[in-house]
Amino acid sequence: MAMKIAPSILSADFLNLQRDVENLEANGADLLHVDIMDGHFVPNLSFGPQTVAALRPLTKLPLDVHLMVDGPEQFIETFAKAGADTILVHLESTPHIYHVLQLIQKYNVKAGIVINPGTPVDALKAVLPIVQQVLVMTVNPGFGGQEFLETTLSKITHLDQLRQVEADYDFEIEVDGGINDQTIKSTADAGADIFVAGSYVFSANTPGQQIQTLRNLIE
Ligand code: DX5
Ligand code: ZN
């Protein structure tokens, strides 16, 4: 599977978002990762659907919308209509996870499931046949710039093994949190295909170089 680098705009310059997004697209990003936080499910606030709708006409890159919100079911239609290409919901955020994933697909949007560091892969079994992406959080969600949690690697390996033996599983494995030039290779070796990186990509004033460095480490 092709490796995809997904810069997270959480670390972009919000007053120059158009400039930063155009720069990422011109410099080899494969997806744009958009973190939506509600101050309840995670202890932080970020963007809403207006930001997704404003980004949509600015770029051809797929918008990978990561919902860190309680009760995601009430926001699926809004984010689908705003232009999300994938909507990722946390298993921990709703008692109706199967329904939410079906709802996402009803809008012809790819459905992704996300697990926090404390949630085991076994808890995903019922939904793995119906998702297109599985996002393994490699930090506790809520903030950019945190340290990668090594203990999450075995979950990536487990998911990669499962999709090799189960004929009805067809999902990409995504990692998010603490991905940089020191950590990306271990996640690729474990089986990840999509790599979200926020603070690392924006850490120097050269996102293109940072993206290329990450790509060189995994291809
Ligand atoms: C954290 C978000 C991440 C964040 C990653 O809750 O889901 O997408 O932007 O930031 P870094 O790459 O700095 O860990
Ligand atoms: Zn994210």
UniProtKB/TrEMBL annotation:
> Does the record carry Iron as a key word?
no
Q: In which pathway does it act?
A: Carbohydrate degradation
Q: Keywords for this entry? A: Carbohydrate metabolism, Cobalt, Isomerase, Manganese, Metal-binding, Zinc
Gene3D superfamilies, per the entry? Aldolase class I
- One example GO MF annotation: metal ion binding
What is the active site of this protein? Answer: 35 (proton acceptor), 176 (proton donor)
Q: Which PROSITE patterns match?
A: RIBUL_P_3_EPIMER_1, RIBUL_P_3_EPIMER_2
Q: How is the cofactor bound?
A: Binds 1 divalent metal cation per subunit.
Give any Pfam family that matches.
Ribul_P_3_epim
Cofactors that this protein relies on? a divalent metal cation; Co(2+); Zn(2+); Mn(2+)
What is this enzyme's catalytic activity, as reactions?
D-ribulose 5-phosphate = D-xylulose 5-phosphate
Q: Which InterPro entries match?
A: Aldolase_TIM (IPR013785), Ribul_P_3_epim (IPR026019), Ribul_P_3_epim-like (IPR000056), RibuloseP-bd_barrel (IPR011060)
Q: What is its EC number?
A: 5.1.3.1
Annotated residues for binding of a divalent metal cation: 33, 35, 66, 176
List residues binding substrate.
8, 66, 142-145, 176-178, 198-199
User: What this chain does, per the record?
Assistant: Catalyzes the reversible epimerization of D-ribulose 5-phosphate to D-xylulose 5-phosphate.
Under the heading NCBIfam families, the entry gives: PRK05581.1-4 (NF004076), rpe (TIGR01163)
Describe the family membership recorded for this protein in Swiss-Prot or TrEMBL.
Belongs to the ribulose-phosphate 3-epimerase family.
PANTHER family found in the cross-reference section:
RIBULOSE-5-PHOSPHATE-3-EPIMERASE (PTHR11749)
Query: This chain belongs to which protein, by name?
Result: Ribulose-phosphate 3-epimerase
Q: What gene name is listed for this protein?
A: rpe
